[in-house]
Amino acid sequence: MGDIKPVYLEEKLREVEESGRLDYRSKTLPTWCPGCGYFSIVEAVAASLCELNIPNENAVMVSGIGCSSRFPFFVNTYGFHTLHGRALPVATGVKTANDALTVVAVGGDGDGFAIGGGHVPHAARRNVDITYLLFDNGIYGLTKGQTSPTSAIGFRTPTSPYDNPDRPLNPLMMLLSYGASWVGQAYAGRPDHLHKMITQAMSHRGFSYLHILSPCVTFDKTHRTYSNLGVQVRDLPADHDPSDRLAALREAMHDETPALGLYFREERPTLGDALDGLVEKAGGEVAAKATAKPARKARR
Amino acid sequence: MAETAKSARHHVVVGSGVAGFQAAETLRERDPDSRITILTLSRLLFYKRYDLPKVFRGSRDWREFLVHPAEFYRDRRIGMRRASHVANVDSRRKVITLDHKEEIRFDTLLVASGGRAYLPEELAEFRPLMHNFGSYEDAITMAKALPERGHAIMLGGDMIGLDLARTLIDTQHRVTLVAGPHTFWPHEVGESERPALVATLEKMGIEVIEGADTGGIASIEQGARGFSARRVLFKDGTEIAGDVVMPFFGLMPSVEFMLGSGVDIERGLLVSPGLRTTDESIYAAGDVCQIWSDAERRYRFYYGWKNVRAMGDLAARNITGSSDPWVPAQDEKLHISGDGRIQSPFWEYE
Amino acid sequence: MATDIQISIVGSAGDGTIAAGEILRSALAGMGYKVISFDVYPPEIRGFGKCIARMRITTEQAYSLKNKSDVLISLDDSHAIPHAGEVRECGAVIYERGSIVQLPEGGHISAHIGPGQLPYPVPIRELSEKSTGANRSRNIVVLGFLAGLLSLPAEAFRKAIGRKFKSKAAAAEASEAAFKAGLDLAAQTFKLDDVMFGPPVSTVVAGATVEMINGNAAVVRGALDAGIDTFFGYPITPATSIMERLASEMPKRGARLLQTEDEISAISATIGAGFAGARAATSTSGPGLALMAEMLGLGVIAEVPSVVFVSQRGGPSTGMPTKTEQSDLHMAVYGGHGDAPRIVIAPTNVDGCYRCGGKAFEMAEAYQTPVIVLLDLYLSNRYETVVFPSRPPFEADCNRKPGKLQAGEQYKRFALTGDLISPRAIPGEKGGMHVITGLEHNELGRPNDQAQMHEAMSRKRHEKLKAALRHPDFTHYKRFGDEGQVDVGLISWGSTFGECLEAMYKARGEGIRCAAMKVVMLSPFPTHGVAAFMNDCKQVLVPELNYQGQFANLLQAHVAKPVTRLNRVPGEPMKVEDILEEIRRLAGRGKTAQKAA
């Protein structure tokens, strides 16, 4: 431990303003509970958009329904707050219509793996060039605290008053086997790492899945708390090879001690590439990607 | 078809000419609950074959020749299996096999398949160049081939041909008859009667060539383009030219499909005076059968519309319980009427 | 001589029944006849299911198929036998003369040919084997025979065969030989001359093209001509062929199609693409539309353009996937939760499928809402000759674009304008950033559930659609038949309108004053025009293919004058005779009265 430098609020504010990150925040204040892990996610996304220098109008946030899905309202980009479970197919539609857009799908564990679970494998295997930020708090927060597909066995909630009997899903293993071309894990309690991971995920060409662990400070006082998570999380081993899918699966198996970092990454043609390939095969003209603004137009 | 219960008797009639149709009508009257099926080669319902010469008087539509409309068959529940070829009759199993391998069970069978135009073997090779007149289709085809005021050459004759000749003459056509032993078939005409009859034909306007029948014909040829369509060349070196050549050598019973049935056949099916064949469930009527004549001590044919209809009726009555004997319905003599025209009882029909 | 001939070809899957129908249609349309056609496929993919290709060939425009066919061709007696009774008096039945297996009595179609019908036995198999060495060309042999029987020009058939097998030289050659074998046999067959073709009447306008096309293909053509950018779909009978055809055509124009994991995903992606500015569509049938209901509600409240082609089939549930019905009107118009007004248009013929197929995109953009184009199995699979104009009659862009924002001004995606249609910014547009949501919202799009706001926005979503009732170059409804006061007026929708027109014209022939109105725009409902028509009618008859009278219910919700309903659910098109009988009854002409007349 070296010298501790005092941090002055004005300096911090100036630094934030100068960074340009605020341009990516909307004037709507988040509706989340004080202390919610999601605040750090919205901050990290704004920082990543800024860092990657993505024009506000070229970014689209697509969400489902849930606490996390309120996210689009809090960033200054285009946004679509859709239906419970449907963020991925809507995002697929947006991206298919306009490759030039940076499309981020956001949603919670219930949204993504209960009601919307059927869409995840298909977005992953098609390698839709979008980023999926999965906010996993292991609970249905918006409806005031029922069990979710990632709730632990024994978790007691109003819909499981005699404790949750169901085994939780392992989303990382699922995504790795579904064929996602970028799979990583972050923790809302480590905002700097989270920001780095989001930047990487958004830079990846293809379907990037970032699993973000976060506590629900209001409805979960027993399991996924800051104190528990703080102890449980670890870094991926330094020698982990992100091109090794089997190694990634092995690491993902240890969900009692979640490892943070990049599990897996591969370069392969995206859905857009594949669809352009079909156009070429059919003898059509591929719309110019760089200038697909405001939207690509088919030849009539 | 098959509207009645399976247990009902199934009467099958082969042939939809005068005999077959009359039989079906009588069968329906006398056995209301039975199933009746007519099997016929024809694609049309029962029609007036005797009226076919009318094609030269402007009647060309097949509907004008129908005796009854389709409702008649529906109302009477008479099944009409048209364009059906009977391949075999198994009298032991009581099963008819059609040539498309469909099997039809019968309780009683009436064979009324009639006869078809007989063609002497010497002329067989010229068949494609000749026109028949036995069916509606034949009649229309022939009528289309014969132009207005055209020339028809008839070989043989016979009463069907002579009837057609009358109409052709009346409708301003030219008819040449190459006469021979079949000229007045089925009338039996003695040597002494013949000259007067031939003279009557000539008086009618028919050009008669005697003594050059089958044996005298060397060949039939297609005419040169722009000239007459047909030429008939005789062995004596002479020839005649016309638009159509028509063979009229009487009828031959259609019995081939009965060869495996086990019933007795001579030229036609041999039947008792009650019109039963040698199988107790099979009867025959019309031009296809030879009826035992006690008087003449032989099986013989009876021709003519009235006779044929009476046979159909009698067979149907005997199938349904009667046991009446055959009585001819008309005489068989050829007359020359007071005004010098030839009159055959076989031309009398309703 | 006017031509009006209906031909049915019935066979088993694998007999080439539908292919024979295609060639026949293509040949006849090529000669200049008007053709209306409806094929029936088996639910099974392969095997022994029944296939029917049925078409009506006319010189004047026909509106429906006739109850009776003039010619029935059997390629499989077991399937054709039940249809023998559908041949009119003096109509022809063409069938296989022989059999390779022993048949029980009645096992051959000749046993079922009525006394009034004309049998044409043909050694189909034998001719196919002799001419091509295989029995696979039986369907072409019968076409040759038919061409000869009806004295149709063989050249038109040869061209149609050439088009059908353009990339398969061996098949084309075999078909040519089989066709000739059938044609030659017909030349030697005595024709009873009852089914007769008159010369075709050419109606082709300069620059336009005439094509033989079915409802699904026409919808596709409309969508392509309107510049469809993206399509997301999931296979379902009877809409699948829309997707299949688009899959082959869209990439040729640089457009994108994706087969999604389910119908929910299909409509979600469609609405996502619509949000991103694309002309986006999906297609489905009743079961899929049920799954899409929630997302369509989002499209309504978030005001996103999208187009859904729905081909109805027999329901409820899996129902009768290969049978036609018009029982999804309630769901199309009212389906889903909340007050969710949307545009529903239902073409009545194949030409209408083309127009609705394109116009739907204009409307979706112009009124910023989902547009459902409602077809039914009969219309989807029915072939008609359609005249396509030389230039697509569709606008390329109907978006209302936002102007430049003043400094400090915030873009209001849901601005309450005079006509309640708000200028729409599209992702990628500078300064237009906004969030749309399924939550009730204010003009900015921010969640807001205040009473006043919900009232204002509900009104916006409903009232803005009124403009669609004046959408340019679109037939919202149309009256046919007698002008002025009539004894009986028919009002119908979708494919059944064809049968209504036919019945109406027949009734007029019997001296009944009669008119018929088709209603293409079902939502919003063109109350004014329909009510005006009903005022002219002493009696109003509403025939439709559903049990509940779904269109009559919709109609009665807008116009109080009572109507007589004619509801049938046979799984097949309504019979013209049934409608005619009802018209006579309403006009006070019983059967006896009619006979006396």
> Using DSSP, what is the number of strands of chain C?
21
Relative strand content of chain B: 25-35%
Mean of all residue-level pLDDT scores of chain B: 91
Profile the largest sheet of chain B.
Answer: 5 strands, parallel
Order of strands, main sheet of chain B, comes to 3-2-1-7-18
Helix and strand element order of chain B:
EHEHEEEEEEHEHEHEEEEEEEEEEHEE
Apparent shape of chain C: globular
| Highest-level CATH class of the largest domain in chain B | Alpha Beta
Spell out the CATH superfamily of the largest domain in chain B: FAD/NAD(P)-binding domain
Mean pLDDT of chain C: 93
Number of domains of chain C: 3
Q: Give the largest chain-chain interface (CB within 8 Å).
A: A-C, 58 and 58 residues
User: Quick one: overall form of chain B?
Assistant: globular
Class by SSE composition of chain B: alpha/beta
Number of individual domains of chain B: 2
Which strands sit side by side, in order, in the main sheet of chain C?
A: 6-5-4-1-3-2-14-7
- The total count of helices of chain C amounts to 19
Question: Which residues of chain B form runs of ≥5 with pLDDT under 50?
Answer: 1-5
What is the CATH topology of the largest domain in chain B? FAD/NAD(P)-binding domain
Helix content of chain B: 10-25%
The CATH homologous superfamily of the largest domain in chain C is termed: Pyruvate-ferredoxin oxidoreductase, PFOR, domain III
Describe the protein.
The complex is a heterotrimer of chains A (300), B (350) and C (597). Chain A is built from 10 helices and 10 strands. Chain A is of the alpha/beta class and 300 residues long. Chain B folds into 2 domains: 10-114 and 254-319, FAD/NAD(P)-binding domain; 118-250, FAD/NAD(P)-binding domain (3-Layer(bba) Sandwich). In chain B, 19% of the residues lie in helices and 25% in strands. Chain B contains 6 helices and 22 strands. Chain B has helices spanning 18-30, 70-75, 136-145, 159-170, 194-204, 305-319; strands spanning 10-14, 35-39, 78-81, 86-90, 95-98, 103-105, 108-111, 115-117, 151-156, 174-179, 207-209, 217-222, 230-234, 239-242, 244-248, 251-253, 269-271, 282-284, 289-293, 298-300, 335-336, 342-343. The longest helix of chain B has 15 residues, at 305-319. Mean pLDDT of chain B is 91; it is low at 1-5. Chain C starts with a strand and ends with a helix. Chain C has 19 helices and 21 strands. Chain C is of the alpha/beta class. Chain C is globular, with a radius of gyration of 26 Å. The model of chain C is unreliable at 592-597 (pLDDT under 50). The interface between A and C is large, with 58 and 58 residues.
